[in-house]
Design goal:
Largest sheet of chain A: 2 strands, antiparallel
CATH superfamily of the largest domain in chain B: P-loop containing nucleotide triphosphate hydrolases
Oligomer: heterodimer
Strand content of chain A: 5-15%
Number of strands of chain B: 10
Largest interface: A-B, 41 and 48 residues
Order of helices and strands of chain B: HHHHHHHEEEHEEHEHHHEHEEEHHH
Radius of gyration of chain A: 37 Å
CATH class of the largest domain in chain B: Alpha Beta
Low-confidence stretches of chain B: 165-172
CATH architecture of the largest domain in chain B: 3-Layer(aba) Sandwich
Strand order of the largest sheet of chain A: 1-2
Strand content of chain B: 15-25%
Low-confidence stretches of chain A: 1-15
Helix content of chain B: 40-55%
Number of helices of chain A: 19
Number of helices of chain B: 16
Order of helices and strands of chain A: EEHHHHHHHHHHEHHEHHEHHEHHH
Distance between the termini of chain B: 74 Å
Mean pLDDT of chain B: 85
Shape of chain A: rod-shaped
């Protein structure tokens, strides 16, 4: 920009340029870092450490260990990022709105001011993310080992956390540029957080119509990226199994048919059933056994009569397995197989029949398949798309902040 | 009778609803509103215009800000009704409603609540304006068409205050024709400074023609709302008016980007970052305002010099928020002075300062003016420092409540022109009667126009 100065005689004196947008950025950056020191903005760093510590202690046992733990843990981590980001900047512009107006009047470029904020807030978010990751490690969170974009997954997760935090930060900066006072900004803040929390999809199952709203949230892409990085789909689903184990002493009763029992007894791989099959249901009788039986029924003289063949086997014993096999192979037993048998047992005894390991594997496989989420598949594409979306939103919010502040002179009367 | 879709859209546009009773009540309200608006000096046909009638109704109640809200809210509600009609779902069973429509319904409910609250404020204002009993609020809330009809047609109900006719203007008294462009100074030929607010154009200032030579320190006088800040903003190019402002022969408006650094404006309030040091604040101001090719050493030297001029050197490392009121004022002024502007505007620089500090500050401004600058100062306590000023500009509100030039000239000339000894007496005589003045503004505006004409 060329300029003409006027001396006392009103003559044109010389032409010169004022600071360009780029060099104004450095002026404001210097200002912001002085504010960081003097205006106690450094407090956001210990605050971030405390929040990260509290959350990490709670989620540490389950994070990256199971589907449920990962989902809740990633939601908690994303909330930490959003909270940090929002609080960094929610008052940043509105508290100095009059100063911004004055500086704008004195030749400040709004784009330079916003750019300086972007750089300053990015550095704040980066420091907070490093602190958060460090504290998570300190508390004992077991991060997956191999990263997809960097050699370490903790660094990949750190990038996601930074992007979540930064996008939220710039969103709050936009709100701050819209608000005319800190009170107004702080009133909007809870709505912002609740919106992010509810529509993230991590806490509640969202109805279909809310999809467009959900896609506007930073939290959604944060959870998606973190869940993908944690390989959510290959984590065990433990909640159903835990519920079943909790019910093992619960009594159950009812009826089942002989046919169902026969089918169950065909599972020869199960050791419990193998033992059951050996159970003798018809005892093999010798001549002596028969004589004892006859005498007990009042028939005299049967003992001496059968004494010569005393130990000779007269009938063959039958096991439960043999009976089941017979009934299974004999078409004439159809009618018998439909006969109901009353039972009364416990959940644990039923699982004993199927086998604990097998029950667990079946439950986790089946439920895991049902809980499969395509967006959480551990792939570079999925994670990269989340990162790009978060960056895109950051830029959109930055552009909106600039546009909003360009109209700052309009509220002068 | 089955209504066609097109007809429904028309009904929504006109009445905001398609319900029979709703339309009937709106029609009755419009019938009552027409004479009601006329009673308050607003053309009755505004009652026919959807949304705008809400604003005009609120103006009659002396509740213009509320009118803006009710008008905009009605407009948005109308748009929502359009959308609802477009998707043809005004659901009877809330369970069957899709999420998107449910969101619209929630939004509509929220807007209806806002409209309800703001309408109560308007009704309350109308009751005050008509001087009726407070219990009228209930009929207004419950069935607004009924009191509108009664108050509109009954001669018993008359407003105690009327809305100014927005199209009426008193015969404009010419405050003088354009002045010639001053080569070595500031020339202002301001015809009109107006703002458009909602359904009306508001003229804030008109016919201000004057030229100030370099080296003059000028006092800007005027009562509250006379347009002093408007004048400063217009002359500094910050709020452009229908005007020509020439600084040293160059058009300030046309070359604003070039000349904005020649203009320093110290606002009424100390708008600075409190948690920054005095030196840091001034150095940043210098970086922002001084040319890019200024060497860092020169910039620092300039900051040191300005700190010296304003007596801030001992407070160099102090936080701005820890300074006294007078020191903060000085920092605020020094921020603008650091770029050595040719034109220096100060809006109440001595507010909150005691007599000694105020005089000391004004002395520094006099010193600045003596270096060949134009210093234009607004102050509400002029008499304690009047000997430091060369000229006086007196702005006053005319019968249309528009800021006008009542005098521009030397301090002594002002005394004889107004026949008053002190500047405060001058302000008192041009101030309206309702704010404790003598209400002689029109007289002096005309007198000054005559003097200029001669």
């Amino acid at each position: 920009m060329t300029e003409t100065t006027m001396n006392g005689a009103g003559r044109k004196q010389r032409h010169f340029r004022h600071h360009s947008r780029g060099s104004q950025v450095s002026i404001f950056l210097g200002k912001f870092f002085r504010m960081f020191l003097y205006q106690n903005e450094w407090k956001v760093l210990p605050m971030a450490a405390v929040i990260a510590g509290l959350v990490a202690m709670v989620v540490q046992p389950m994070l990256f260990q199971s589907m449920e733990g990962t989902l809740m843990g990633t939601l908690a981590l994303v909330c930490v990022g959003i909270w940090n980001g929002c609080f960094n900047s929610i008052q940043a512009i509105c508290r100095e709105r009059d100063v911004v107006k004055r500086e704008h009047r004195s030749g400040m470029h709004i784009s330079s001011y916003v750019m300086a904020h972007l750089i300053y807030q990015a550095i704040l978010c980066l420091l907070q993310t490093v602190l958060t990751m460090y504290i998570c490690r300190l508390v004992g969170v077991e991060f997956p080992k191999q990263g997809l974009f960097t050699p370490w997954m903790i660094m990949d997760i750190g990038i996601t956390m930074f992007l979540v935090s930064f996008a939220s930060d710039i969103l709050a900066l936009w709100v701050s540029s819209l608000a005319h006072s800190t009170t107004a900004a702080m009133t909007v803040m809870p709505f912002l957080l609740i919106f992010q929390l509810v529509f993230s999809g991590g806490m509640l199952t969202l109805p279909e119509w809310s999809e467009p709203l959900s896609s506007l949230t930073v939290s959604r892409y944060g959870i998606m990226a973190l869940s993908a990085q944690a390989d959510y789909n290959n984590q065990p689903l433990v909640s159903v199994w835990n519920a079943v184990v909790g019910m093992r002493d619960r009594k159950v009763s009812g009826t089942f048919t002989i046919g169902q029992a026969v089918d169950l007894l065909q599972n020869k791989d199960n050791p419990t059933i193998r033992e059951l099959r050996k159970l003798e249901i018809v005892k093999g009788l010798t001549a002596n056994d028969l004589a004892e039986l006859a005498e007990s029924e009042g028939v005299q003289g049967a003992g001496p009569l059968l004494a010569p063949i005393g130990e000779q086997e007269l009938t063959v014993s039958v096991s439960l397995g043999e009976a089941a096999d017979y009934l299974a192979s004999n078409p004439d037993s159809q009618e018998l197989c439909e006969e109901p048998i009353p039972y009364s047992t416990t959940v644990g005894q039923i699982i004993d029949l199927v086998g604990w390991e097998k029950t667990r594997a079946v439950l986790q496989d089946t439920m895991g398949e049902n809980s499969f989420v395509q967006e959480y598949v551990q792939s570079r594409t999925n994670i990269a798309s989340c990162w790009v979306t978060l960056l895109f939103y950051t830029l959109i919010y930055a552009a909106l902040t600039t546009i909003t502040l360009e109209f700052i002179d309009k509220d002068k009367r | 009778m089955e209504r066609t879709n097109e007809m429904k859209f028309v009904l929504i546009a006109l009445f905001g609803s398609t319900g029979r009773f709703s339309i009937l009540f709106t029609v009755l309200f419009i019938i009552g509103l027409w004479p009601l608006l006329k009673k308050s000096g607003v053309p009755g046909w505004w009652a026919l215009i959807p949304c705008a009638r809400e604003y005009m109704f609120a103006r009659c109640a002396g509740r213009e800000p509320e009118g803006r809200v009710t008008s905009v809210t009605s407009f948005v509600l109308c748009l929502l009704a359009f959308v609802m009609q477009f998707v043809s779902v005004r659901p009877a069973w809330i369970e069957n409603v899709s999420g998107a429509v449910l969101s619209l319904l929630i939004l509509e409910l929220a807007l209806q609540i806002i409209l309800f609250i703001y309408r109560i404020r308007v009704y309350s204002g109308l009751i005050e304006v008509y001087g009726t009993r407070r219990r009228w609020i209930w009929p207004w809330i419950l069935c607004h068409w009924f009191p509108a009809l009664i108050w509109g047609f009954s001669k018993k109900y008359q407003p105690t205050w009327k809305v100014e006719d927005m199209h009426r203007e008193l015969a404009a008294i010419a405050s003088g024709s354009s002045v010639e462009v001053l080569r070595d100074g500031l020339t202002v030929n301001l015809r009109v400074r107006a703002v458009r607010e909602f359904f009306q154009k508001k003229i804030l200032l008109r016919d201000v023609h004057l030229s100030i030579p370099l080296g003059h320190m000028v006092l800007l006088l005027g009562g509250s709302g006379a347009g002093k800040t408007v004048f400063l903003n217009a002359v500094s190019g910050y709020e452009k008016a229908d005007a020509s402002v020439m600084l040293g022969g160059e058009d300030l408006y046309r070359h604003y980007k070039k000349l904005q650094y020649q203009v320093g404006y110290a606002p009424q309030h100390d708008t600075m970052r409190g948690k920054d040091t005095v030196y840091g604040t001034l150095l940043d101001a210098a970086k922002l305002r001084l040319p890019k090719d200024t060497y860092a050493a020169d910039r620092k030297a300039r900051v040191d010099k300005v700190m010296d001029i304003f007596g801030l050197t001992p407070s160099r490392t102090h936080m701005v928020e820890k300074l006294s009121g007078g020191q903060r004022k000085r920092v605020s002024i020094a921020m603008e002075f650091v770029s050595n502007p040719s034109l220096f505007f100060l809006d109440e620089p001595d507010s909150g300062l005691d007599g000694i500090m105020a005089r000391e500050l004004m002395g520094q401004l006099r010193h600045i003016a003596d270096q060949g600058k134009i210093v234009l100062v607004i102050t509400h306590t002029p008499d304690r420092v009047i000997d430091l000023f060369d000229d006086v500009i007196v702005l006053a509100k005319d019968g249309n409540r528009v800021g006008r030039l009542a005098y521009y000239g030397s301090v002594d000339g002002a005394r004889s022109f107004f026949g008053r000894e002190s500047m405060e007496e001058i302000v008192e005589c041009v101030n309206p009667v309702e704010v404790g003045g003598k209400g002689l503004a029109e007289e002096f505006i005309a007198k000054y126009a005559e003097v200029r004409h001669d």
